Amino acid sequence: MWDAFGFEFVNFYLIPGLVLGCIYALGAIGITLTFGILRFANFAHGEMMMMGGYLTWTIMAIVTALFGLTLHPLVAMVPATAVVIFLFLLTDKYFYKPFRKEDTIKVVMASFGMMLIIRSAVQAIWGPNQLKFVSGIAKPNEILRDVSGSIDLMLLVPNKHIWIFLGTIVIVIALSYLLNKTRIGKAMRAVSDSPDLAHVTGIDVDQVIRATWIVGGICAMAAGVFLAMDIQLLETTMGFRMLLPMFAAAILGGIGKPYGAVFGGLVIGLAEELSAYPWIGDTPLLSPGYKTGVAFAIMVIMLIVRPQGLFKGRSF
Amino acid sequence: MTDPILSLNNLKAGYGQTEILHDLSIYVDPNEIVAIIGPNGAGKSTAMKAVLGLLNIREGNVTLNGDDITDTPAAQVVRLGISYVPQTQNVFVNLSVQENLEMGAWTRPEGIPERLAEMYELFPDLAEKRNQAAGSLSGGQRQMVAMAKALMVDAKILLLDEPTAGLSPKYRGEIFATIQKIKSTGVPILIVEQNAKQALGVADRGYVLVDGANRHTGTGAELLADREIARMFLGGGH
Amino acid sequence: MEAYLGYFLYLLSLLTVGGIYALFALGLNVQWGFAGLFNVGIVGFAAVGAYSYALLTTAESTFHLGGFGLPLPFGMFVGMILAAAIAAVIGVICIRLRSDYLAIATIGIAEIIKLVFKNETEITNGPRGINKIPRAWEHFSEERFYSSWPLSWFASPETWESFFDWLPNWWWQPFFAGTVLLVMYVVYRLLERARMSPWGRMMTAIRENEPAARAAGKDVTTRRIEAFVIGAAIMGLAGALFAQHLRLIEPTNTFDSAKVTFLVWVMLICGGSGNNRGAMLGAFLIWTIWSASELVIGGTISLIGNVFQNLDTTILETRAGFLRMMLIGILMQVILQKYPGGILPEVRPASPKADKS
Ligand SMILES: Nc1ncnc2c1ncn2[C@@H]1O[C@H](COP(=O)(O)OP(=O)(O)OP(=O)(O)O)[C@@H](O)[C@H]1O
Ligand SMILES: [Mg+2]
Question: How many folded domains does chain A comprise?
Fold first, then answer.
């Protein structure tokens, strides 16, 4: 059973699906928080993720040039995160905040403009061509392979995927601690619940908004670096490619619901990978070229049947 | 003569271009319950929003203890000691009761656990529901959460917008009893009410608001005795 | 003389492409300016118009489906109808929801459309694209056109052949530019009439105060879907003209959302959303800036290359293009914040009462 069917399914479809799902989930957290708290769909989110990948690459390159060391992306990511958070706060201050009291669609438009500005900036600085993020072939983790192999359930999971799983779990746990146990986290939920009431309750909404960008920035950063670690390269379109699946994940999970976004991300990631599995006959169910269409299809179905999402987020 | 705690002086205000309050003056002295009554759409809620700085104020001013607070942003007004319970959507439905109260205490520097305990004493119903989402409570319980949330700070004055709207007589009685309890702790209250009789019963003074301006003013008892007011609001029938 | 001809032809090309962009901007103005619908999938509707036109009008080819060699106006018409049909489907699903959802859905559908054109190689020749798309007027000099109706009525193919050989090779340019501008003008006049009509006034009322319009019994959702569909049809038409102008289309670079969707948005916002003349003005203005800045930057770079002989300027050339895009993005943000009305702000149609007096 495992040999005939499970081995291939788990190692070549299920695990990559989960990896992709983790990346979408992290990205979607930021989108859903901004949507819930600042009330707009942030089109620049994917580009911020992409920018995070490039900054991490730059830090790795600088360290290599100066000290001859190869830094692990997860280490180089830390200073890059600070830069990305700073960029998030800066964009908010100069491009989104001026529209806070106006129709939300103006902010959506501004974020759409930001998307192009950031992408062109990255293209102008780092060039339009792909960059190698991590070189070499990712070999499966040997311990896991041997241990699982000894009970006839051989799992081939490269270290990079293990890092992605662990990183996602850590971030989601930290996020749930923040939202449920800390004062600022509860205030984030409160503002997402009702900004008007938050104002007349005396909550410092500006502070909550800053916290939202910081949390969203950290998640976006992690998502960008995880994606770069997974595909081992950087390209300027990678952020935009993620945008639709992340929106789909946020809508699937219910706007303003971080856990919903995580769940939605996993579902979308799995659906994309599993859509290429030969469920019927020997050929992929859906040509791999259409993988990215899966997220859109799920999103459209959700918009038709249940726009408030599975976890009953805000419905507009 | 001491300054009133809160005073709205000849306000002309509205939403954007539309003017709703044409010439409104209201004041609240220390240790007073003041009731505002009036027909639907008279501008009662709007008057409260004017205090919170949520409105476009064209003329007149609002003072707190003699200081001008016209056009101060809401969050700052709360920090200055004005606690406000809106008419609708006055609790965070996705937060638990306790979290709602904690949010109410946002501007409170310290002593939050003590104040929480006091609130659970004042509203015993809430104590057992403290971990339940506020959205899952009954209307009356929500109203209590909203009041407790507003009382989490050391308010100089409490603004209540129709705290008994849509509640059963039993709950209404409880709320009015609580209001008197709150007054006895030294917090003055400005209350908007549809249940004019009960409101004027507990109020020291009252205002009748019609079309965004004062129509009648007097002590609770005077207004209760007034023929015209009785015909307008108290004649049981409507 | 040669130089003047060069300028003249450059001007014609500015007018042609500017006119096509003006059509896109007019289409967007119906959606955003009239109805307040945020469409960031312009490129998708453009691609549908372009591909339908291309497949229907090209000569039979082994690379893609057809081509069917049908008359050019028919291809343009079908392009419009298909773009409108796709818009109708999205509209029915999303317009009842909040505006952000429409934005997400339109950017999504644009990507899906491009994905289909890229993957369905049997039909569209995939990433290699479709070429030899007939361009209005110039197409007459192709044998399959001059040897058939209507040109064959007037003279024999041989006569036509020598006639076209005799014409300067740019002869079609003024005609094509004129056609684009004519189409633009007709669409403009129609939209102006729509704007002044009760329908247009209703759109304004809805945008101003939706609850009041709903309360007055107006079918807000249907009106919005109508505006969305009409706008998309205009974009489909513009896409068909775009295909004629380019003669070679492929899914990725031709229909780059930055160069189509975004540029059109900048044009509309700059010219003045809600104002049809503003939309056209913005299109010509931004297109002129865009293409002139390309020349200026290109010139500067080759100057630098001449001064520093040993410098490799290719990097500068590619990077400069992105910098230009970035500056256009910043320009849009500035206009959005500082001059939200654009150059020609919206003029409200007079109220019915004022009309009568
Ligand atoms: N946010 C708003 N924007 C514009 N107009 C408003 C707004 N809120 C209320 N109004 C208008 O202001 C007027 C007064 O409303 P307000 O809510 O103050 O009445 P009220 O006296 O509190 O009535 P009720 O007893 O029904 O609560 C009404 O005509 C209402 O339509
Ligand atoms: Mg009211």
Answer: 1
Q: What is the pLDDT of residues B140-167, one digit of tens each?
A: 899 999 999 999 998 899 999 999 888 8
Say if strands B18-28 and B6-15 run parallel, antiparallel, or are unpaired: antiparallel
For β-strands B18-28 and A233-234, DSSP reports them as unpaired
Whether residue B16 has pLDDT greater than 60: yes
Residue B209 lies in a domain: yes
Q: Are residues B118 and B9 in the same domain?
A: no
Average pLDDT, chain B: 88
Position A314 in a domain? no
Q: Which residue of B has its CA nearest to A190?
A: B92
Give the number of the atom of ligand 1 that is nearest the alpha carbon of residue B194. 25
The pTM for the full model equals 0.91
Residues with a CB atom less than 6 Å from ligand 1: B 15, 18, 20, 38, 40-46, 87
| Closest residue to A197, CB basis, from B79, B92, B153 | B92
Domain limits for position B111: 88-154
> How many structural domains is chain B composed of?
2
Task: Show me where the domains of chain C are located.
Answer: 2-256
Q: Is the pLDDT of residue C270 over 90?
A: yes
Q: Which atom number of ligand 1 is nearest to the Cα of residue B38?
A: 21
Dist CA C134 CA C53 (whole Å): 9
What pLDDT, on a 0 to 100 scale, did the predictor assign at position C347? 82
* Cross-chain residue pair A193–B78, CB shorter than 8 Å: no
Contacts of B153 (CB under 8 A, 6+ apart): A202, B78, B81, B83, B104, B105, B107, B108
How many whole angstroms separate alpha carbon C89 and alpha carbon C75?
A: 22
In this structure, are B163 and B54 located in the same domain? yes
Instruction: Calculate what percentage of chain A has a pLDDT beyond 90.
Output: 68
